[in-house]
Design goal:
The protein is α+β, with helices and mostly antiparallel strands.
């Protein structure tokens, strides 16, 4: 085997160790004046339920130890989550993710349970009690129509009565802690429409319960696109992407997108034949030069 073909083979082996990564940005992000806390809305899935987009709403925090305690509303600080359409509510779901079991995500006929609309603080499925997570509790004003019932039927969520309501967790629960990504999930919303919302959040900065921050965060009607690679020639082309985020990756010359060498035996034979031709030409030149030198002697 000639040296050039050996180099191609070595390159094939090395390329097998390299991969690519993609990133997805928030379609809405706001940081308020309340100690660096804010709100982020991200696209979680497109067409998980046909024709709908699943969004996730997060409280963003300046520290990894910040704690989100409650999301509430009343007549002075209304809480609402609206859609220009309706919200998808799965038969296996509920107001919170407490009934969501990821084992059903791969069971035919039950896959859509992962796209259920719910409110939460830090959990997206049944809480891991052994890890210190707890269920999310809800508060409902008994004197007005239940926001829980309305939202559970796919209608807008509205908490604006004098007594108010909302959802909360125990202060000992770990699912309220921001963590390394510095955000806490407070809602998942699946809808075909544009969404808007306003939330009154109770936060303990760095988990210090003596330093309570209460602040309202909201966003107007948005319909998030999906960030990703939109070039069909790229290795990581995303059929659901509506906005190119510059993450497209391409196969190197003589390799496919899986890192497999595409340098064929025919190409290798061509290289070897070309090198043999060059060797013969060089040998002929040396022989001619040798004969010419002998004639001159």
């Amino acid at each position: 085997m000639n040296m050039r073909f050996q180099l191609y083979s070595l390159a094939c082996l090395l390329m097998a160790f390299f991969g690519s990564a993609t990133a997805q940005n928030s379609c809405f992000q706001y940081t308020g004046d309340a100690g660096g806390f804010g709100l982020s809305v991200e696209t979680f899935a497109t067409d998980g339920v046909s024709g709908m987009t699943t969004y996730r709403v997060y409280v963003t925090t300046p520290n990894t130890t910040d704690f989100v305690s409650a999301v509430i509303g009343d007549s002075d600080t209304p809480l609402f989550i609206n859609s220009t359409s309706s919200f998808y509510q799965d038969d296996l779901g509920g107001t919170t993710p407490a009934s969501i079991n990821p084992l059903f995500f791969s069971v035919p006929g039950f896959e859509s349970s992962q796209y259920d609309s719910w409110v939460t603080i830090g959990i997206e499925q049944q809480p891991d009690l052994a890890a210190g997570q707890t269920e999310v509790s809800v508060l409902v004003d008994p004197n007005v129509s239940s926001w829980e019932v309305a939202f559970g039927a796919g209608s807008n969520l509205d908490i604006s009565s004098p007594i108010g309501g909302g959802w909360y967790i125990l202060n000992s629960s770990v699912n309220g802690v921001s963590g390394d990504d510095q955000k806490v999930l407070i809602a998942q919303l699946t809808t075909a429409g544009e969404i808007s919302g306003q939330f009154f959040i109770q936060i303990f900065p760095e988990g210090d319960q003596s330093q309570l921050i209460e602040s309202s965060f909201g966003f107007a009607q948005i319909s998030c696109g999906v960030d990703g690679c939109t070039d069909q020639a790229a290795c990581n082309y995303d059929i659901d992407a509506t906005s190119d985020d510059g993450t497209c990756t391409y196969a190197a010359a003589n390799f496919d997108c899986d890192g497999n060498c595409t340098f064929s035996e025919n190409e290798g034979a061509h290289v070897r034949a070309h090198e043999r031709t060059q060797t013969l030409e060089a040998t002929s030149i040396r022989h001619m030069a040798g004969r010419a030198a002998r004639r001159e002697l």
